[in-house]
């Protein structure tokens, strides 16, 4: 296997001829968007059904507070369900749902519309009105999607909290959003066992004011505490409702949802997304980026609805485009490590969208696992959540995509709502590891610390220079923090908080968060770039890199690596090999001060590596909060291996 990293990547993969010939969008889309950006987005908006068309595409008279499709009226749930049923597609499958224990449900568009209408009627009966906030704390079961769409249908604002978050995290979000109803379940299945959710809700609600009702889906049959009058079973309240509900049409700027994301302070930021612009961009990007053919594709975003990827590319984008999707409750290794590949084979999945951390986990487990399944139905692969290193890209391309499937590596954020920088599968010659170019209609640039645009072959900060339809409108309840967080550094440009590199061909490479950029002897070195180099070595499956205080260089590079299944840990010899590899690959300045071989890395339940905790360990600090980790014992295993002081060469 070739050893490659961002520093040395030179391969390029042109679009497959048959895909390019039938692609939803061709190269002319870039020219069209460049000629008249607003007309381009208006054309995208007309793919939706509006009760009243807008008067003005964009109101940017009070930046950074954007209004899109001003005066337009639509209903998001109607666009995701009713219009498809009315057009004769009610029998098409919306979701093939698979529970972790192997139970299944198939929901057609007609079924889903009926369920959403019942849930909407139930919420109205509970006193929920347009503009009220509803908290959703559910496993990956159909009721999560139904609850979101029911809120959208009646104009309530949903606030989904990932089912792995603690009672503390849930309570702070309920309080900040002012939620009046919480929708949860007794539990969900995780790694082969029931995982309770209701106790966390009881704990959270006891610390908040204003929650009138807790609606509980029965999933695992676990015993639950019950508060009479407040707690209600979903099957008692929702099932009896009428499947008829005439939806109301709301202003394009009507709030759709709040999603909390972490920032530089302890208080999470409630990112507010509204209706018309958001649905326009997620529907159009879903259709263009994944080249979706609704009559023959089976699409799977292997993420959780608790994150923005789930909102935009499990629920709203796919349903607006009449996609048939797969939705899976559990983890990739339950009951065996081939579970995902088994599902691809079972449902004939044609498009798979997942995170690099999962791909690297599959690399660690070995290529013989995907080789044991028929993955020939796949025609397109996607990557989301973090920059994908070229070695993981190549493994994904070869061992999951059979060497024939384009990979669309997508850069975007909770804040942006939809795809912002990514290749188009029928147009772009793919460069492994690069997100490549801004999506048509998006204006993204790489700038220096003063905000001046940089030329090709340079490294700087990523900014967005024009408003886009699915952009966040504010931070819930805190306009000042919105301005300060995203717009204060460069005035009229949105600063994403990410570093980026433009190569000699103008392709954009994401380098991770700026706070993950290390300053070693005055040189800016990205953690992502060093991680990518380490994973480019044939012995390494996964790597996490942090900058730790160093009296000589300002920061020293500390790396934690997991070896591939067949690799031997030869101790110091291997460490020296890896240091030499990085020094040769990126430059001597990037050579890690310290490399530790570990069995596992600390990850949240969504698969993100907790570099903050690794930084604590590298600097011999007391460990911070570990409650969001999948397995907190990982930190003890790493600490036990740590030498008292960094080893010098």
Automatic annotation (TrEMBL):
* Polar residues: bias regions: 1-11
Binding-site residues for ATP, renumbered to this chain: 385-387, 409-414, 498, 513, 524
| Domain AMP-dependent synthetase/ligase residue range list | 87-468
Q: Give the protein's cofactors.
A: Mg(2+)
Q: Which residues form the AMP-binding enzyme C-terminal domain?
A: 529-608
* Top enzyme category: ligase
What reaction is this protein's catalytic activity? acetate + ATP + CoA = acetyl-CoA + AMP + diphosphate
Sites where the protein binds Mg(2+)? 535, 537, 540
Q: Where is the Acetyl-coenzyme A synthetase N-terminal domain?
A: 28-80
- Which BP terms does GO give this entry? acetyl-CoA biosynthetic process from acetate
InterPro entries linked: Ac_CoA_lig, ACAS_N, AMP-bd_C, AMP-bd_C_sf, AMP-dep_synth/lig_dom, ANL_N_sf
For this chain, one GO molecular function annotation is: ATP binding
User: What EC number(s) does the entry state?
Assistant: 6.2.1.1
Q: Which UniProt keywords apply?
A: Acetylation, ATP-binding, Ligase, Magnesium, Metal-binding, Nucleotide-binding
**Keyword ATP-binding belongs to the record:** yes
> Where along this sequence does the record place binding of CoA?
190-193, 309, 521
* Function statement: Catalyzes the conversion of acetate into acetyl-CoA (AcCoA), an essential intermediate at the junction of anabolic and catabolic pathways. AcsA undergoes a two-step reaction. In the first half reaction, AcsA combines acetate with ATP to form acetyl-adenylate (AcAMP) intermediate. In the second half reaction, it can then transfer the acetyl group from AcAMP to the sulfhydryl group of CoA, forming the product AcCoA.
Family statement drawn from the similarity comment of this UniProt entry: Belongs to the ATP-dependent AMP-binding enzyme family.
Q: What is this protein called?
A: Acetyl-coenzyme A synthetase
Could you tell me which species this protein originates from?
Answer: Blastococcus saxobsidens
Q: What is the lineage of its organism?
A: Bacteria, Bacillati, Actinomycetota, Actinomycetes, Geodermatophilales
């Amino acid at each position: 296997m070739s050893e490659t990293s961002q520093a040395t990547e030179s391969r390029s993969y042109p679009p497959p001829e048959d895909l390019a010939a039938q692609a939803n969008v061709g190269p002319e889309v870039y020219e069209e968007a460049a000629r008249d950006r607003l007309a381009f987005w208006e054309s995208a908006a007309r793919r939706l059904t509006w009760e009243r068309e807008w008067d003005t595409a964009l109101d940017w008279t009070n930046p950074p507070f954007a209004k899109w499709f001003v005066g337009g009226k639509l209903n998001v749930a109607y666009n995701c369900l009713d219009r498809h049923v009315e057009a004769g597609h009610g029998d098409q499958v919306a979701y093939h749902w698979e529970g972790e224990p192997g139970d299944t449900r198939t929901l057609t568009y007609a079924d889903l519309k009926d369920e959403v209408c019942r849930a909407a009627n139930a919420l109205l009966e509970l006193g929920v009105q347009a503009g009220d906030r509803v908290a959703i704390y559910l496993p990956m079961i159909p009721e999560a999607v139904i609850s979101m769409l029911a809120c959208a249908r009646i104009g309530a604002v949903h606030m989904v909290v990932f089912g792995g978050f603690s009672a503390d995290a849930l309570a702070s979000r309920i309080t900040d959003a002012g939620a009046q109803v919480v929708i949860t379940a007794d539990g969900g299945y995780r790694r082969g066992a029931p995982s309770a959710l209701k106790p966390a809700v009881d704990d959270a609600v006891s610390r908040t004011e204003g929650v009138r009702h807790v609606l509980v889906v029965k999933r695992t049959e676990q015993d639950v505490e019950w508060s009479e009058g407040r707690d209600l079973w979903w099957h008692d309240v929702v099932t009896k409702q009428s499947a008829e509900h005439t939806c109301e049409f709301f202003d394009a700027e009507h709030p759709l949802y709040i999603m909390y994301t972490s920032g530089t302070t302890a208080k999470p930021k409630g990112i507010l997304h509204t209706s018309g612009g958001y649905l326009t961009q997620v529907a159009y990007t879903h259709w263009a980026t994944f080249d979706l053919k609704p009559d023959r594709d089976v699409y799977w975003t292997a993420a959780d609805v608790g994150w923005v990827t789930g909102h935009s590319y499990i629920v709203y984008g796919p349903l607006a485009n009449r996609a048939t999707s797969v939705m899976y409750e559990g983890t990739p290794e339950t009951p065996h490590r081939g579970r995902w590949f088994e599902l691809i084979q079972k449902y004939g999945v044609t498009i798979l969208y997942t995170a690099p951390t999962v791909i690297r986990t599959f690399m660690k487990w070995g290529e013989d696992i995907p080789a044991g399944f028929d993955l020939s139905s796949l025609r397109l692969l996607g990557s989301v959540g973090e920059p994908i290193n070229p070695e993981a890209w190549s493994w994904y391309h070869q061992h999951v995509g059979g060497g024939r499937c384009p990979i669309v590596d997508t850069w975007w954020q909770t804040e942006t709502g939809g795809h912002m920088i990514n290749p188009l599968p029928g147009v772009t010659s793919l460069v492994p590891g690069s997100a490549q170019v801004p999506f048509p209609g998006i204006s993204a640039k790489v700038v220096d610390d003063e905000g001046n645009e940089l030329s090709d072959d340079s490294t700087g900060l990523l900014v967005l220079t024009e408003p886009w339809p699915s952009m966040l409108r504010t931070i819930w309840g805190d306009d000042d923090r919105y301005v300060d967080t995203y717009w204060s550094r460069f005035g009229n440009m949105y600063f994403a908080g990410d570093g980026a590199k433009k190569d000699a061909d103008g392709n954009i490479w994401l380098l991770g968060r700026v706070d993950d950029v290390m300053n070693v002897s005055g040189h800016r070195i990205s953690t992502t770039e060093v991680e990518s180099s380490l994973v480019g070595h044939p012995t390494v499956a996964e790597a996490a890199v942090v900058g730790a205080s160093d009296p000589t260089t300002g920061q020293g590079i500390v790396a934690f690596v997991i070896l591939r299944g067949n690799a031997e840990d030869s101790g110091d010899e291997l460490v020296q090999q890896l240091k030499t590899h990085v020094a040769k690959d990126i430059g001597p300045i990037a050579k890690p001060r310290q490399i530790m071989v570990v069995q596992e890395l600390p990850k949240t339940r969504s698969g993100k590596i907790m570099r903050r905790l690794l930084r604590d360990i590298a600097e011999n600090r007391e460990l911070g909060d570990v409650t969001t980790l999948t397995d907190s014992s990982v930190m003890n295993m790493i600490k036990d291996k740590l030498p008292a002081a960094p080893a010098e060469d």
